[in-house]
Amino acid sequence: MEIDTLSVILIFLIVFFVFLTIRDAPNPDVHPLLLTLQSDAAKVRYPGESAVYRRGGSQNGMGIFERDAKTLADLFSNKTNKDMQCLGSRRDGSGKYVWQTYEQVAERVANFGSGLIKHTGLESKDLLGIFMNSRPGIGLVPFICYEGIIDMQLTNKHAMFHVEWVIADLASSHYNLITVAMLSSSPRLTDVINQLQLTDVRVIVVSQETLPVIFSASSSPNSLRHVILVGDNKTVITDEQREQANALKLNLCSFEEIEEIGKKERVEYKFAAPKDTATIVFSRGTTSEGPKGIELTHENILADIAGILTTVHDKQRTNHEDRY
């Protein structure tokens, strides 16, 4: 059978386009033949549970990334560059950022932590509730400081979260307090009441937006005694807010007042151990039973950060020129 020139050209074009399609098609992150090496499944399984999966490249576990960094406070302290910009804010949501250096942030952390202990009587391993609009990822702040990333924040009503969220979180890790990160996105009163009762929190840091919810929740039995208010600029506590707090037998004060107390009466740091609980994070999960609290130790969070640093290629690592 003879094949004419036109048929040859058509066959060639078909083969050529098939080749281009295969060549330019999206490739999987891992070749199908290597997918079995992507993770290592534990040989032991409990009834009703899946296997525990470990990263394929770390079948024998992985150590922490620095021998002298074992807690969240270590991450911040070890990498603090006193003159580098650390936290930036725009109070009105526009204009230039006003920056605080690492040295200034470290000073505020010591002031707030000291004032917190002096004013409220909190001791090591006590709980500090934080109930403000949104929140940074758990362990994200120390990781940012460790990597030397410039941490940029908006602190108005449209903010992702307040600078004071970061200060309170860092202060807790330096004084071995356990933060209770309460759900703040569209909080339901029943959920807030449940979280307060489950944790027996005595001290909580709130924003102007979440304060009314705390007042409403305080009409139900709980252990709350001290409420620390953060404003959009300099915190102003109104007479009405003080009257409401007094009626509920709550001690209401501003974040700045706590810092001022700590500035006058400094308390030495009380560092945690790696296996101490660092935070209790509430999540709604996938059920309708209400938020559930998850305890994370300093060791848990550092292992998570170590996993990130192990996985990310050196050329893709963040540095002081990056911003969050």
TrEMBL record:
Q: Which InterPro entries match?
A: AMP-dep_synth/lig_dom, ANL_N_sf
**Chain ranges of the AMP-dependent synthetase/ligase domain:** 163-324
- Please name the GO terms that the record assigns under molecular function: long-chain fatty acid-CoA ligase activity
User: Where do the TM regions start and end?
Assistant: 6-22
What are the record keywords, sorted? Membrane, Transmembrane, Transmembrane helix
Highest taxon of the lineage: Eukaryota
* GO CC aspect terms: endoplasmic reticulum; membrane
- The identity of this protein, by name, is 2462_t:CDS:1
The organism is Acaulospora morrowiae
